Amino acid sequence: MATNDNFFERVYDVAKKIPYGRVTTYGAIANFLGAKQSARMVGWAMNASAKHEDIPAHRVVNRVGLLSGKHHFEGTSVMQQLLEAEGIQIEDHKVVDFEAHLWDPAKHL
DNA sequence: CGGGTGACCACAT
DNA sequence: AATGTGGCCACCC
């Protein structure tokens, strides 16, 4: 077994399903997994996802649309650049019209 | 083995 | 209204 740490695997699975040009939040994923209290773990899972190439962690931001994880990327602007490349406008490290681009797994999945 | 930290969020005061 | 604290679980020292 192994292989799957439940919570982590689920986070990866959902993160991979984030549509192009859309963003989601740690809390939304955690909530979707039924553990909104463990939003922190989602972030930690993303950290581990760094070794997972198929995890578009740049599409995951905190609940206010702030690129909380930009600091953990290869560079500091990579995350923003990726989002902008997908048509998402970033201003002051925050997603513009965040709710409009928000993709909630609990709603769409 | 124990403690502290962390890409967070929600509630309480 | 703003600030503080709690909670969750995994990983590092």
Automatic annotation (TrEMBL):
Pfam families: DNA_binding_1. GO terms for molecular function: methyltransferase activity. CDD domains: ATase. It comes from Aquimarina intermedia. Coiled coil: none annotated. It comes from the Bacteria. Residues 6-88 form the Methylated-DNA-[protein]-cysteine S-methyltransferase DNA binding domain. InterPro entries: ATL_DNA_repair (IPR052520), MethylDNA_cys_MeTrfase_DNA-bd (IPR014048), MethylDNA_cys_MeTrfase_DNAb (IPR036217), WH-like_DNA-bd_sf (IPR036388). GO terms for biological process: DNA repair; methylation. Keywords: DNA damage, Methyltransferase, Transferase. This is Methylated-DNA-protein-cysteine methyltransferase-like protein.
